């Protein structure tokens, strides 16, 4: 159906996102359903969280809701204004009038300014592309999830609205179809300009007990040190509708970044729903040194970028490692940006601005030290020159707000050191698997990797439970000792299982070369004694340590040195 027939006479179609249900939400009683923008804010205290087809969709929708809240409440300006919102059960009441005022920009099917789209967007040949281009669980040419295999023929208006928001945040890179009016189009194509803005990030936000708490915990005050907000900061719907092509400009603040128009798109639809899309590149945005504008990501200092740009420091988003659980990366969440900084040297890593904000709330007494928060990490890893999504990262870790306290760092340090305890124990377990494999004269990498995965897998649930209750202790050091005992017991039992399963060949053993020269008759019994010595030493239990493979006391030899060559 042509654009004119979509919008002519009495056949004008409309899908008003302020009143029509389209945002999936999980209620605190376990029921799930779709709500309008207005209903989400009206019922926020009754909702556990918003949900989506993918975690990345939830992240994009959360940023949209935060942009609405920041703009409707015009702030908060400072921590005192935030405190008033936190204490007021009806704090989101102004959102209703705000949505009424901007209702014309929230119509998904509007003729002149469709929500997050460009009216009249077309290619030179009036091509209409498959909806696979915007539905992330069907990457073009290679289905990722099986929910919609092999193609997407139609979407409801509610589904399409969610994927439009997701596309601006997470769309893949690669060559895209050129559109009329885009000066970057060459031969009907626009060459790669990068992924959607959120795709650059190691996404982080903080969850509370309900959606009202979650929204407020992520509603950063304008006077937050380290973040910059211009007086002109505004979301996409308070700016002029986007024209084809892209505008190079600097973001003005979180309202702008949370709704950044990284793409130009236009839905094709009829009365039954959406059946096609036109999609191309929009506003470009480089990721370096955006930590003063973007609070929902950790940052890492990049020496290669400093050399390339001839400036220092240069920070890039710290992306998530899909193979590393959130609890193992706890340091990136709770370590203060001022820690481990030598003199005037810039910090190697910056924790997310969202967590700096929550740290301020607990430090200044707006949140109780034992208030339970849940930092949530969401990200995507892209493959084949960023033209497909390989993996989606979604994890969380529950902890008391005191771990972010800027003056009392004892709890945070014990949480970080407890992960180091787990790392030492798992390293010892990996060495045991290596030595057992060497004793049996088989390859070592597979058994070592499997043993490490088992070790971390068995320690994950106990650590999460230990961390969630850490703030209940008056002495976090004592709790750390309890944790070390747990680690020792869990990993020691797993090591005994590995030795029992090693078989007759490993029990008999063979002569192997040592790293520092010489040979040793290695069997499962000796490998086990080395393992238990390393485990005891790493976790502070030095009694009964066995000699090392090099003949030194165990206290003088690291677990790595005991691995054989």
From TrEMBL:
Residues 555-565 have a biased composition (Polar residues). InterPro entries: CRISPR-assoc_prot_Cse1. It comes from the Bacteria. Signal peptide: none annotated. Residues 285-309, 540-565 are annotated as: Disordered. NCBIfam families: casA_cse1. This is Type I-E CRISPR-associated protein Cse1/CasA. It comes from Streptomyces polyrhachis. The gene is casA.
């Amino acid at each position: 159906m042509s654009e004119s027939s979509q919008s002519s006479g009495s056949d004008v179609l409309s899908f008003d996102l302020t009143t029509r249900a389209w945002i999936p939400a999980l209620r605190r009683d376990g029921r799930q359903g779709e709500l309008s923008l207005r209903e989400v804010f009206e019922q926020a205290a009754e909702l556990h969280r918003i949900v989506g087809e993918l975690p990345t969709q939830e992240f994009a929708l959360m940023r949209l809701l935060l942009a609405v809240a920041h703009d409707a409440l015009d702030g908060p300006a400072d921590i005192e204004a935030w405190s008033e919102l936190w204490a007021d059960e009806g704090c989101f009441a102004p959102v209703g009038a705000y949505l009424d005022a901007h209702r014309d920009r929230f119509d998904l099917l509007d003729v002149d300014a469709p929500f997050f789209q460009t009216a009249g967007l077309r290619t030179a040949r009036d091509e209409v592309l498959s909806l696979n281009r915007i539905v992330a669980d069907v990457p073009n040419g290679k289905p990722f999830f099986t929910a919609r295999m092999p193609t997407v023929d139609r979407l409801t208006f509610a589904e399409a609205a969610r994927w439009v928001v997701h596309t601006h945040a997470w769309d893949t890179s690669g060559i895209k179809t050129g559109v009329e009016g885009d000066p970057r189009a060459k031969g009907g194509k626009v060459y790669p300009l990068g992924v959607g803005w959120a795709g650059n990030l190691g996404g982080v936000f903080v969850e509370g007990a309900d959606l009202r708490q979650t929204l407020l915990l992520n509603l950063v005050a304008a006077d937050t040190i380290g973040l910059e907000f211009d007086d002109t900061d505004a979301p996409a719907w308070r700016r002029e509708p986007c024209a084809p092509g892209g505008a190079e400009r600097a973001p003005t603040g979180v309202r702008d970044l949370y709704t950044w128009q990284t793409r130009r798109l236009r839905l094709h639809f009829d009365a039954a729903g959406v059946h096609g899309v036109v999609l191309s590149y929009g506003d470009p945005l480089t990721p370096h040194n955006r930590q003063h504008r973007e609070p929902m990501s950790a940052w890492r200092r990049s020496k290669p970028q400093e050399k390339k740009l001839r400036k220092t420091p240069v920070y890039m988003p710290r992306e998530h490692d899909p193979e590393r659980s959130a609890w193992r990366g706890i340091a990136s969440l709770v370590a203060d940006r001022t820690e481990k900084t030598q003199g005037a040297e810039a910090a190697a890593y910056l924790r997310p601005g969202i967590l700096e904000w929550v740290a301020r709330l607990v430090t200044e007494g707006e949140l109780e030290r034992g208030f339970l928060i849940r930092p949530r990490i969401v990200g995507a890893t892209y493959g084949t020159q960023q033209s497909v999504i390989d993996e989606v990262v979604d994890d969380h870790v529950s902890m008391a707000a005191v771990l972010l306290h800027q003056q009392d760092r004892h709890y945070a340090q014990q949480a970080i050191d407890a992960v180091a305890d787990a790392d030492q124990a798992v390293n010892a377990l990996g060495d045991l698997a290596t030595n057992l494999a060497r004793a049996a004269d088989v390859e070592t990498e597979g058994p070592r990797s499997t043993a490490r995965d088992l070790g971390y897998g068995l320690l994950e649930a106990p650590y999460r439970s230990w961390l969630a209750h850490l703030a209940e202790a008056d002495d976090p050091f004592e709790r750390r000792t309890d944790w070390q005992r747990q680690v020792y017991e869990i990993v020691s039992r797993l090591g005994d299982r590995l030795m029992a399963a090693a078989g007759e060949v490993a029990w008999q053993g063979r002569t192997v070369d040592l790293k520092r020269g010489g040979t040793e008759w290695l069997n499962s019994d000796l490998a086990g004694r080395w393992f238990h010595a390393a485990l005891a030493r790493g976790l502070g239990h030095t009694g009964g340590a066995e000699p090392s493979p090099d003949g030194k006391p165990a206290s003088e030899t690291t677990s790595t040195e005991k691995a054989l060559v």
